[in-house]
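TL;DR need structure tokens for one chain.
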Amino acid sequence: MTTHVLSDTGVMLDRSIKHVTRSLDTIITVTIMPIAFLLLFRYVFGGAIQANTDNYVNYLMPGILLIAIASGISYTGFRLFTDMKSGIFERFHSMPIARSSVLWGHVLTSLVSNAISVAVIIGVGLAIGFRSSAGLLAWLAVAGMLTLFTLALTWLAVIPGLTASTPDGASAFSYPLIFLPFISSAFVPTETMPGPVRAFAEHQPVTAIVNAIRALFEQQPVGNDIWIALAWCAGILVIAYALAMAAYRRKIT
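>> reply
TL;DR here they are.
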């Protein structure tokens, strides 16, 4: 049974990846905005921002990566919505395949496409001064954190992909997620923010994730941030997965 599910998921992944590679403009679009933010804060705003660091690009990079992922997952919702409206789901369900493989194909495609976007952005960051003293284990920890964050947001994207009535509705939910890093420690220390804004910034998931990734890049102690970040990502993932599967069952019954 497990082998059957894995093979079916592989087929669905291959199908979805082919759609992405035939439309590379989606990956280009996803990377353009975060790169634009990176360049804007590096060369326009960076000189005026006091972040208590000698290399502001290093300070920026974790938040820019999260913005890229939040932007990328909107395409998961859009592709899923397109499949639902085209009737291809009904065709798949008439075949002897594992039903969960249809969703997992889209989810794994999101992981692959976002990994490419993250790699491109890190490459641009290196070109404009990003440097990290992190060792292999720290880089693997960063990769794991970003993967878990991507997986959590992707399952969140599946919900509007299954339930939205328009293409814009399937992808628009990601806009608040894209701007959430701006009210966090991604660009400035939270200590510089006024009281209510600071309270929100310090207790929302992006701040813990950004702080944990930044500490890993700089080989600094991560403290409680990594556990808070993992708890947020795992909690969002569990809830989003449950809601997405409930919505999927309603669609296919």
